[in-house]
Amino acid sequence: MKKLVVIGAGMASGRVLEHLFEADPAAYDVTLFNAEPRGNYNRIMLSPVLSGEKSFEEIVTHDDDWYAQNNVTCRFGEAVTGIDRDRKVVIGANGEVEYDKLVIATGSAPFIIPVPGKDLPGVVAFRDLDDVDKMKEAAGGRGRAVVIGGGLLGLEAAAALRLQGMDVTVLHLMGHLMERQLDESAGFLLRRDLENRGIEVKCQASTAEILGTDKVEGVKLTDDTVIPADLVVMAVGIRPETTIAKAAGVEVGRGIQVDAQMLTSDPDILSVGECVEFNGQLFGLVAPLYDQAKVVAATLTEYKTEFVPKELSTKLKVTGCDLFSAGDFADGEGREDIVFRDPARGIYKRLVIEDNKVIGAVFYGDTADSNWFFGLIKDGTDISEMRETLIFGPGFQGGATADPMAAVAALPLDAEICGCNGVSKGQIVEAIQGGATDLAAIKAVTKASASCGTCTGLVEQVLGVTLGDDFVIPAAQSMCGCTDLTHEEVRRLIKSQELKSMAAVHQELGWKTSCGCHVCRPALNFYLLADWPVEYQDDPQSRFINERKHANIQKDGTYSVVPRMWGGMTTPDELRAIADAAEKYNVPTVHVTGGQRIDLLGVKGEDLPDIWADLNKAGMVSGHAYAKGLRTVKTCVGKDHCRFGTQDSTGLGIKLEKKLWGSWSPHKVKLAVSGCPRNCAEATCKDIGVVCVDSGYQIGVGGAAGMDVKETERLADVASEQEAIDLATAFMQLYRENAKYLDRPYKWIAKVGLDWVKERIVDDLDERRALIERFELSQSIYQKDPWAEHVAEIADTYKPLADFQLEAAE
Amino acid sequence: MDLALDAQQRTFISVAEVWVPSGDKLVLESGNYGGLNAFAAASGKESFAMGEGLPGKAWAEARPVVLKEFDGSYFKRTEAAKAVGLTAAVAIPVFAGDDLKAVLVVICSDDDERIGAIEVWKEKDDLLMLDDGYYGAAKHFEWVSQHTHFPRGQGLPGGVLAADTPMLMRDLGSGYKFIRSESAGKAGLTTGLGLPVPVPGDDDFVLTLLSARGTPIARRFEIWDARAAKVGKAGGAVLIDGICAREGALWDEDKTRRVSAWQGLIGRVLGTGIPVVESGNVPGLAGYDSLVALPIHSDNELSHVVAWYC
C-alpha cells in the first residue's frame, strides 16, 4: 500500500481524507500530522464555541473512532520540522515518516500587526481552540476586551466575548465594518446591531501601541486615544503558513503555488487549503477549500479533475445578525443598483446589475432568498425579464408583469405597509373603501405614513392599486431620485430619529440607492453637520469641488483666492502680502469684489497650498468666497470717519464676521452693516443687514441682490451692539437648523414666514439663547481656517499626478 | 455532551399544559401530566377568566408569572396539586401583538433533589433584572441570580434580549463561560435555553430554562426559525440550533432541517400559532416521552419555535 502523509488536520485536509476513503479506502496508508494536540474540527464554528452556544465536542468533524476505522495514524501535538524531498520523508518532532505522496495543509497564520506591545501576555489571535481557551480564560475575569479588526472573525470574537460577559471595543481601520463584504449601508446596520449588544465600535481607528508592562493593559490609537484592556484580540487577517514548504524548496509565492490538480512544484507533493496560492489567488473561506479537497482526493487516486474557483458568499456567525454578501458590489461605470430598504424591520437589500446580470448582492436583515440570488450571480442569469420585481425575490418571478405596482398588488392584505404604526395593506384598503381616497385621508383614518413618512410611496401605490384610474399618484417634490421625502421631511426626521450618519439616513429613511447621489449627498452632509456637529464627521467627498478645494474653480481650471478682510478693513501689511503673493505666483488678475475683498484670480491648483501658506504668514485666513457659509460682512466707515455715521459700523461688522465666520449654512450668507440710513454698505439687500441709527440698530433679514432683488424685512430694532450680534447669530443658527439646502434666507423666510422667525429669536429669549449656544458649539468644531489645515495636512494632494508637458526621455 | 442520558431520570418539570382563549375564558387545549391523573382530571374541569388563577393572571398582567407557593395563593387547583406533590408553577403567555394566543403553564414538584431553573428576566434601564424565578433545590444559585443583572448582549438573558432570538447555551457550569458559572457548576446546571417573551406594551421579558444533569428540564432542545426574513415566502421553519442527549448536535449548516406548516408537531405549532404539548405514543417525539413546543410571535409574525423533549 502506498504511503500518504498529510501535514495539518484542518477542515480542508479532513475533507481530503473523507473523499479519498470514499473513492478508494485501500489506496493509501495515511499518517496525519497536526501541531495542535487534536484532530479535525470545524474551525469556522469556533466563534459559537467561544460564545458558549456550541460545545467543542459538537464541532469535532472526525473523532478517534473515525481515524481508527480508517487506519489513520494520528500524530497529533507533534510539529513537523522538515520535509526531505530527496528521501521522501517527513520529519516530525518524534521521528520520520516516509511518503509516496504528501499533502501539505498547513493552513494560515494570523497576521499580527507590528506594533509595540504585540507580544505582551493577554494579546491573542483567533485561529484555533487554544486561542479560544485563552479568550475564555480572560473572559472569566470579566473586564475589558479590545478586538482589533472589524472583519468576520473579529466581529464574531467581539460578539462572543460580549456574551461571555466582557466589555468589548472593536477597532477597525476602515470607514465601516466588514468593508470587503459589505457596503456602507449594510455596515451601518451591522454596527447598529453590535452596538445594541453593548459592543463599542470605533472605525477609522488605527492602533499605535499595545500598552502594558507584565501583561496587556490597554490599546493606544494613533490619535492618542487610550482604551483600557485586559484582553486584546488581533483579528486583522491571515496569511498562508508556508514555512515548512518553503524550507523544503517547494515553490512558494504568497502561498504554496499549486496547479489546477493541486500539485505543487514537486509532483509528489500536493497542497490544499488556506496555505495555497492558485493563479495568484489566496483562499480564506471554506467553500473553495472543500472544492480543492475533492480535487486533491481525485489527484491522489489518479483521476483527473480541475480546481475552478467559484463565486463566494459570506455569512456572519453572530446569533441574530442576518447578513449575506456575494459577488462584486463596488460602484462602477455601467453598473446599476436595485435597492430595497425596510427601515421598520431593519432590512437592506442591494443588487448590483451589469449587462442585465446580477454581479453582486448585499443583504442585511433578510437573507431568505440569498441562495436564489447567489445562484443568479453564479449562473450569470439574464434578469432583464424580471428586473422590475427582481429585488422581491423568487416569489414574485415567473410570469410577473413589468408593472412596478405588481409587487404591491401581490402583497397579501395582512402585509404591513406602515411599520411605525403597524398598519397593514388590508387596513388601508378598508379605509379607501370607506371613503379615504387620498393620502391625507389615509393618514387621518389609519395613521399610515403619519409618523416617519417613509411608507408614503407604498401607501400611494396601495391607493393606486385599489382606486385604479381614480387616483393619480402625486409627483412629490422629493429631495432627489433616491427618496420620496422632501428636504423638509428629511431634516425633520434627522432630528426626530436622531440620525447621525449618512448611512443611518439612507437606511432609516429608506433611500432607494445604496449611497445617495450628487444631489442628496451635499444636502445630507450639511443637514447632519448642522444638526449633529459633535457626533457627525464632515464628509469632504459629499461636497462640491469648490468646498473640497476651498477655492472657486474658474472656467480655465485655475482657482481664485480671496483672503478674509474682517469687516472689509485691511492694512498696508496685508495689502503688501497680497501684492507679494500675486507677483510670486504670477496671478494674472487682481480684482476688488463687491463684498470689499481682494480676489486673486488665475491661481494654479498646485500653487494653492503655497499661496495660502504665504497669506497665512501675513495673518490672513480663508475668505470662504466659495462656501455655502458666511461670505463677507460689508461695512461703511461709520461714525469714526463719516459725518453722518451714528454707530461704529466697522467695529460691529468686524465683530459679526469674527463670530460667524467658518460656519456652514444651507447657502451662502452675506452681511452688511451701514452706519446710517444712507446705507452705503447696502445692508438692505443682504441676507442679514444692520442699519445703524441714533437709537441703536435696525436688523433686517432676507434681502437679496442677485437673480432676485429683494429688500430686507425688519426683524427687530435693538438698542445695543450685543443684542444686534445675538440676533444675527440666532438668526444664522435658526436658518442653519431649518432651511432647505440651497435655499437662501429670503426663500426660506418666504416658506416659514417672518413671524415664525420672530417668535423664536425676537420674542423667545430662551430660544434665542439656546440657538446661540448651539451655534457656538458648532463653531467650536467648524470655525477653523481651512487653508492652514490643508497646508499642514494634505498639501501633497494638490500636486498634479503627472506633468504631461515634460517630454519623454530619449 | 452534558445532557443526561438516563431516560428514567426524574425531570425538573412534572406537568406542562396549554390554555387557550375561548370566549372570555381560558380553557385547556392540551397537557402532559406525567401520570398525575387526579391532577389531570381536576385540570380538565377548570377554566380561567382574565385575572383568575395562574393562567388568568399571566393573561391579565401580560407577563410571565412565577408562583412558588400555592398555599394561600390565587392558584385555583391547590388541593389537587398538593395531593400529587406539585408545589410551584410558571405561566408563560403567548401573545401575537395584543392578542393572547395561549398560556403555557409548567408545574414542578419540589424536593431536595430537583435542581433546575425557570427564570423570568425583565428589562429595566437597559439592564435585565430577575423578575422572579423557580430554582427547586438550587438555593445558592437562586440567591446568586437574585443579585445578578445583565446588560444587553451579556450572558444568556442579555444575549437573547440583544439578538431578539432564542439561544441555547452549552456547558453553563464549566468554569468560566457563563456569568453565574461558578454557582451554576456547583448546582449541576449544564444547558440553558433563553427566549424572548413578547407582550403588549413596552416591557421586555426573557425566559430562561436552565437544565441540570440530575433532573433535566429536557433531554433534547430545538430552536426553529420561522421568520420570513429567514425562510422566505415558502414559509415553514428551519432548525437553527439544537442538542440531544442521544443524537448530539442537531444543527447542520450544510443540511439544514426544514418543516412546513402542519408538518409534524413543530408544523402544528407553525400552523396554529399556539404551543403544543404532547406525550405518549405520538409520532414526532424523537424517541422521547413528551414534547413542549412554544411559539414566539414577534412583530405580529410567528418568528421562532422552541421545543424541548423529555
The strand count of chain B comes to 19
Provide the residue-averaged pLDDT of chain A: 89
Low-confidence stretches of chain A: 399-404, 802-810
Largest sheet: number of strands, sense, barrel closure of chain A: 5 strands, parallel
Explain this structure to me?
- The complex is a heterodimer of chains A (810) and B (310).
- Chain A is of the alpha/beta class.
- Chain A folds into six domains: 2-108 and 240-300, FAD/NAD(P)-binding domain (3-Layer(bba) Sandwich), CATH 3.50.50.60; 112-236, FAD/NAD(P)-binding domain; 322-393, Enolase-like, domain 1 (2-Layer Sandwich), CATH 3.30.390.30; 410-542, BFD-like [2Fe-2S]-binding domain (Arc Repressor Mutant, subunit A), CATH 1.10.10; 545-622, Alpha-Beta Complex (Sulfite Reductase Hemoprotein, domain 2), CATH 3.90.480; 630-784, Sulfite Reductase Hemoprotein, domain 1 (2-Layer Sandwich).
- Chain A contains 26 helices and 38 strands.
- In chain A, strands 3-2-1-7-19 form a five-stranded parallel β-sheet, with no helix packed on it. A five-stranded parallel β-sheet of chain A has the order 9-16-10-11-12, with helices on one face.
- The longest helix of chain A is centred in the C-terminal third of the chain and has 18 residues, at 721-738.
- Chain A is elongated and about 115 Å long.
- Mean pLDDT of chain A is 89; it is low at 399-404 and 802-810.
- Chain B has eight helices and 19 strands.
- In chain B, the strands form three sheets. In chain B, strands 13, 14, 15, 16, 17, 18 and 19 form a seven-stranded antiparallel β-sheet that branches. A six-stranded antiparallel β-sheet of chain B has the order 3-2-1-6-5-4. In chain B, strands 9-8-7-12-11-10 form a six-stranded antiparallel β-sheet.
- The relative contact order of chain B is 0.15.
- At the A-B interface, helix 3, helix 5 and helix 6 of A face helix 5, strand 10, helix 7 and strand 15 of B.
